[in-house]
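thread: overnight batch results

M.L. [08:02]
morning all. the overnight job finished for the chain we discussed friday. pasting input first so we're all looking at the same thing
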Amino acid sequence: MESSSGAVTKWIPGVVSATFKKTALTAEDILLLSGECGLRTIEWSENVHVFPSDCSGAELLSRKTRDAGLSVAAYGSYYRITGRPHVDPDFKASLAAAEALGAPVIRIWAGEKPSESVTEEEFLSMAREADEAAGIAADLGIRVAFEWHKNTLTDTNESAARLIAAAHNDNLYCLWQPTVALSPKERVEGIQKMQKYLLNFHVYSWPDGKRGPLNEAEWYLYFSAARQMGGTHAAMLEFVRDDSMDQFREDASRLLHVLESGDWNG
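M.L. [08:03]
and the structure it wrote out:
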């Protein structure tokens, strides 16, 4: 589907490796399972499969990912901006792993409390820290994207948009997921409002706030709202009901069906 700018939007199906953090699946298991399910890209998660500063381990996993016929979508770090005068060395350790992994994107978190609880001074200091982090990553050709999550500055559409604007850095983006803190209507509005800043989507369905099977109708709605994004983005499964491998395979099949049958994929 061409956007108003003439760009074509493409979605690559994948998985967030933290999906399996409570199971015994190794990185090699995840690669094998992903290939069997027709998935093509992975967000490798910090403190689960790729540790900060473990550049040799990250390089090895990068090769294994490519050898399996998959790509690295992102490095899912757990670094949180909190308004420090300068980014913490922990960010640079995570960034080193992301670079060694060959990740085009590093995920960070926008604070650690709800946006409504953040003072104006805190907000502006967090925006400055985000700007610095994005600048450091830009020098390595890596984009920085906030996790879209409750109890952070991306817990509402308005706060997320304001944070991006306040940071004044073209290398700063957001991921997106259907957080239960927002209604379906608010989720669609957020996609439409933020789409020029959105990168990858984390794909799951939580009816009544609990993990459920992937709802195809729900995701038709979200992908339809994002059809004007343009570019190439990863749509990655996360939060499988009961951590079931059978449910994961079913969810993967449903995701592929949505991507293949919609009018949004170039």
